[in-house]
Amino acid sequence: MTTLIIIRGNSGSGKTTLAKQLRRRFTNSLLISQDVIRREILQVDDHAGNLSINLMNTLLEFGRLNVDVVIIEGILRRDVYAEMLVHQAALFHNVIPIYYNLSLSETLNRHKTKSVIDFTDKDVKRWYRATDYLGIEDEIIFDHAVTVEMAIYDIIEHMNKF
């Protein structure tokens, strides 16, 4: 049975770092990055109905049928991606939804630590959404105090419950 790990949150919250660490830990896994799909592969804007939703949906289905762990990460705004994510979560036996709930000031501080910065603080402020929870049962909320190591531990603890 494939486990789906959904990692969401504002820009700079640590989603990609956590997702990459998990990918290294689980050898038979698939990592789906919203930024890669939407910005690099398809070059589409982040709005309802954009093409990346369909491609991510297809990749999630592929992962469910072919690997042990599927990790999807990105801002994945509730107003744009919730329908697809909730639908897919219902198809997986094991689902671990995670949301990084950070303040705008913490989000901006973390944004400044990125090795590659291809957008401004003004962009981060414009994109910021407070408490954009997905609303899936047992959604895990991480705050600014949760380290990558703590997050991995929590995720593995949840996986052991399945």
Summed up, the helix count is 7
Succession of helices and strands: EHEHHEHEHHEH
Radius of gyration: 15 Å
The termini sit apart by 10 Å
Reading off the top of the CATH hierarchy, the class is best stated as: Alpha Beta
Strand order of the largest sheet: 2-3-1-4-5
Assign the CATH superfamily: P-loop containing nucleotide triphosphate hydrolases
Strand fraction: 15-25%
Low-confidence regions = none
**Strands, count:** 5
Total of domains: 1
What does the main sheet amount to?
5 strands, parallel
* Helicity level: 40-55%
Tell me the CATH topology.
Rossmann fold
Secondary-structure-derived class: alpha/beta
> How much is the average pLDDT?
93
Key descriptive features of the protein:
alpha/beta; Rossmann fold; 162 residues; single chain
Plain-language structure description:
- The protein has 162 residues and is of the alpha/beta class.
- The chain has one domain (3-160): Rossmann fold (3-Layer(aba) Sandwich).
- Helix content is 48%, strand content 17%.
- It contains seven helices and five strands; from the N terminus they run E-H-E-H-H-E-H-E-H-H-E-H.
- A five-stranded parallel β-sheet has the order 2-3-1-4-5, sandwiched between helices.
- The longest helix has 16 residues, at 51-66.
- It is globular, with a radius of gyration of 15 Å.
- The termini are close together.
Question: What would a concise description of this structure say?
Answer:
The protein is α/β, with parallel strands linked by helices and 162 residues long. The chain has seven helices and five strands, in the order βαβααβαβααβα.
